[in-house]
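Researcher: Here's the sequence for the chain we discussed earlier.
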Amino acid sequence: MTLDNLSYPASSRMRALLCPIGRIRRARFQEFVERIQEENVVRLGDVSPDLKPNRTMFSPQGFPDGQIVYNFTASQDRDHEYLEPFEPHRRTFLVIAVADYREDNPPDVLLAQFEDLRAIYRRSLFHTCLIFDSPPSAELPVPKIRPNDDRDTSKFFIPVLSKEASTITSMRTVMCDITACLLSEFTGYARTLQSLPTIESPLVSVVADDPAHLSANALTAASNRLSMPSIAGASVMGGLQQQRMSMQGFGSGTVTERARSKGKGRVQISIADLYLLTGRIPDALREFVEGANVAKNMNDHLWHGKALDGIGVCLVILAYLGVDFQIPSIPYPVLDSKSSVKSISTKSLLTSASDAASIRSSTLSDIQQLVELIPELGNTVLNLYIRSSNFQGEAIPPICFSEVVLRISKFMTSVFLANGINKYSLNNMVIGESISIRPASEKRAPNIPTRGDISALAMRAYPEPIEGFTVLDASNILGGIANIHGAIGFQRKKGMITRELVRILIPGLIQARVVGAAGAGVHPAAGLKATSGAVAQNVGGSAGVLDIREDEVEVGLMSVLEDMCSSYGIVRKPGKSAKTESPPKQLTPGEEVVADNELRAFGWTALKIHVLRNCMSLCEALPDFNGVLQFTSQLLKMGAGDLSREEQIKLSTNISRTLSAAAKLGLNGIETSYWDAFLLRDIELVESALWKSPSPHGKHELQGADFGDAEAPIIVDKNPFIYNPFSRKRETATAEPVLVQGELAEFRITLQNPFEFDVEVESIVLDVKGVEFKTEKHGVVLSPFRTQQLSIFGKPTVAGSMTVLGCRIKVFGCAERSFPIFTEGIDYGKLDIKVKAMGLQALEPKSTEKQITSKRASSKAATSWPLPTPKTIPITVIETQPLVLAHSSSLPQSALMVLEGERKVFSVVFQNLTSVPVDIIFFSFQDSTTTQLQAALASKDMQPSEIYEYEILLLKKRALVWKNQNEKKQITASAATNTDEEDKSVAKKSSSAATQFIPPNSTASFDIEVLGKPGLTNASIQIDYGHLGVHRDQVAGKFYTRQVVFPVTVTVNASIELLRVDFIPFGTSVHFGKSADSALGETPHDKYRDLFLRPGVRDHPSEYCLMTLDLRNAWPEPLKVTLQVREPPTASTNNDDASSWADSYETSDTLQAGHQSRFVLLIKRVHLLNPTAKIPSVSGTQRQFVVSTSKPTVDQERLSREAFWFREEILKCIRGSWEEVGTSRKGEVELRSFRLSPRMVEAVRVDDVGINMEIISASPSDGSEDSTATTTTPPPKTLLKTAPSTYILQTDTFYKLRTTVTNRTTRTILPLLRLSPSLKNSQMSVALDLSRRFAFDGFLQQAIRRIEPGGATTVELPFTVLCRGEFEVTAGVEEIRTRGGGGGGGGRGGGGGGGGGGGGASGEVPKTPRTAVRESVLDSDGVPQDVLDGVVGKRSWVGREVLVMNVRDVVEG
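Model: Thanks. This is the structure I predict for it:
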């Protein structure tokens, strides 16, 4: 694992240099380095101590629980050697040479190179060489040492077994042996330090080593710069030795006691650093505390802060090791009295490390106190460092100050991420283990530093002025600051710091490029790759400064740049799935587009463009060709709309130049992704101009199979292929494209280029999933800012299903990728963008797994980005199909003329051009009236009755039909009734194979019938044909047909026009038949009566009405018109059956050209049980979810429905036809064009309750009271019936007025009968005064008994007339409902007791179930049925006929 050089305990790590020696490959060296890095932590208890008494100062036995953490590096930091006395962890104490035994390096060569290595890094304490993959018996070089050197030479060259032959502890043992030798060398180095009187501060030592910097200005500049180059051949130890010799030469009298104490404290602090590096943490802590006390007393602020920093590191390492410890009394500065009071010490640290085990009483609470202690110590250390700058030569170097700030910030960051001091935070700080993100639900520990405090402290490390720092030092500091902000979630601030890092790297890389090129003798513009290679050769084969490996570039630089771009919202940072083993979620093309648009809409576009330019500049300075192309593509994707034309052209040129440079260097595969996701805008399958594409159909469309006739073509009555006005879904649905195997297909591709430069498309092929589809590659150059179309051709090789997903397009400089079909983009002007999240949280992927239940969440989801759905084209590839065309017809020039209502037949011949037979044919027809009817049906203000008429015209009266349809059905029906077994077997055998309607390479003829309709100008016969190969009954799934169309021009002329229709109530004063009782002889009405004897009227005259029709001949030739009338048919009668018109009567007349005639018909009145029923749909489908623009009232709706149903009943009773005189031309008269007014409805209607009155004689000879005979002959000369409702009576004679009430409704009624006699043709006051004219034996108003549905009852009222005159009687019935018990008895009966008066009920009439249901039922429109029937509360009826009585003194004749 990689150790962080800026972590808090970084000063406790031993720096070790790994160098290759001899011949060794880079990959092998990297492998060996990884094996060494795996054992970078060495426990002191596993290290063998040196038994020599002069090498036991750092014996591992002093603290066996301790450990040494090695910081392995492959480079020597010579720029910061002047800081090593102040910060010993910067010094390289160990040099490990790595050799490969498999390369057959001679021992003498290895020894020579090893000696050279010791000479180069002579300041290191120990040098060793590891020979990897070496067998135990291999010959090792023998080093040469001085005679008085007592070191173990066997540790200079150490063989290491191969990875396969090694055990788990092999490499660990090697590291323990190396550590033992290194600890032995530390004793001598420590003795040397202890012999020094003092150790100078870093800046003072620099001045002492280089006398040229003695001036005040130079000293000030040295205190401000980040690092100083070391003088060749000089060492810090050498400078210390010179100081020692000079100080001894002057004697003790020249050095004050204060200076000696100060120097002793500094030396003690340096010794504490050595204990810290070697793992002796208790000894280091003791020395740091004692040295801090001395520095505190001597006001040595710089070294005082250094000691306090070491104390904090020791405490953290002790907490990591898990040993019990006590927090010592920390010597805070005198001015920081508060800090001193806050010290957590209870007992001073023991003077001996050996006595530390006796009192180990630290608890977990003490460890948690480090959360407050370490930041407090760090703040004190920083204040001391700032205070030290007031003393000349004692100021801390800025690089050290910045690193201390970052180390303290890293401690606070680890505590924040791990939620306290625990194993996670300690492992992260000491050995570099990553901290897993804690769950949001975890409770926050107390005293945890906040993110704001961490950020504020980390920003104190920002180097100012940054120009005074070297590029390397500034990069390290800025990288550390950015890393801290990224860890705590301050991505925007991290991006800002990273952008500053990129800004200072660009000039540094350019300068290094120039210097490297000049040293190699190459011009800087000659190519950076060549420059890097030349520099590498001059340094002896080692890697050049800019020779960056591919993986290092991607993992290092590109990740930094992408992370910076994600902070500015340029790219989306990988989700959590990228950090785990599971692959990240694959976005759909629509989700990718939405994600790109979210990124484009996020943040400040100008700033993002500037950041991308910085990234491009950095990649060009490296150079990194992939990076240049990637960020150029990202810039075009992100800000193409904000770039000028010149800038876009420059970016395009930059791509071409980068590709050319990569090609010259032999770098292949340098590509980027294309920057416009909407490059492909559409793909269309172009239909062939010669043949129509096949259409799919289901088995249910084989309607001809319902009759069992395999030889009949199919007539599409319910669902025509071309147009069905009642199947809106089928009409608007897009048919699935179909291709035929082996036939060439053309696709039209639409590409767009919204940029200001040409886009060179190298290749385009269809991206098809499914069957194999061969496509010819095409290339094109897209001109700037336009859309272009091109056609590509291909053919499917096998039958099956395929889906066109898009196109695979290769653009110059870009990788070939599949582009989905986006026909529509995103309209930013119509988006309702709401601010729902701030900062980078707005770019976090939205969770689609959670279901939105609340209204608020639903509204938020509704305002999100619309997800563009890519278009896909599913295509079915079928096997070879036949090709048919219309060969000829019996019509000259495909035109004919008919009259309205006339039918004509013609034939059409179709020819099959292929060797594949046609065994399935569908007939469908289209005419000019279809469009008009379709537009009318689409109207929202259409009434249901009008819709019904249009549907009749569409379905029942087609303009074109196949003439042989009825014949085929009759043949099929007769074949189905055949009972002969032999015939059945023959029929079964013949139907097992498919019938060939059009054989291969032959013709077939079909007869078509045309009906003359108004508005018919043209029509077309559409035949869908195909090849099944099996019988129709054996078709399992879909089948496919092609279509051929035969157009016909039709001229329709007018024939018979219906001008007007009227209905007249028929007066009952006319008697149709001669009554046996009539003695009046011939009357004036006899001729009128004889006129209506021909229809054979058998019912009461009141049940009929007169219908008048005015017809006009619009044809220039005379036409004979015939009208037929019949009795109303029953429900089981077939209206179209000719036998149902056998008993009808007819009337005819010949109309000359332009003349009109009135026809008078006797029509029987109609009674309907439910005249307000909902108007049905002829097609069987209802208009759902259609909001009508007109809202009729309830009365209007009731009248409309009544007019509709009575009109339908009348149309069932009449029909008309015409024929041209002298020719065979004939047709039908259209009678559906009339409408019924409310007056006509009343003339046609039969009331729900019928009232019939008649007068009978009351003489005793008539029988008893219960007699109900209606044919009783009155006495002569006393009663004469002259008409159905007219009587002649004699004065002073007794009669009976018999009233019959009939219930035609569907519920029981309880009626109240009212009789109203009056004097005819008189004023109201005189007419109703009958007290001296009439005498009645009973009540004129009386309740009668309950009448069941379909029942009748009679009421007789005896009376006599006292004077002559002409009288009339009217009758009315009212439904009554009273409270109380059951209905009771009847009214008074007349003389003879006939027919009893009905029931004057005293209680409420119980409702029958049918009555209750009807009162509670709602119509389909939501209107109560009673209201539609016009029934609100009680109902009443008035008799249609008035009884007239002519009273005379003597009845004559």
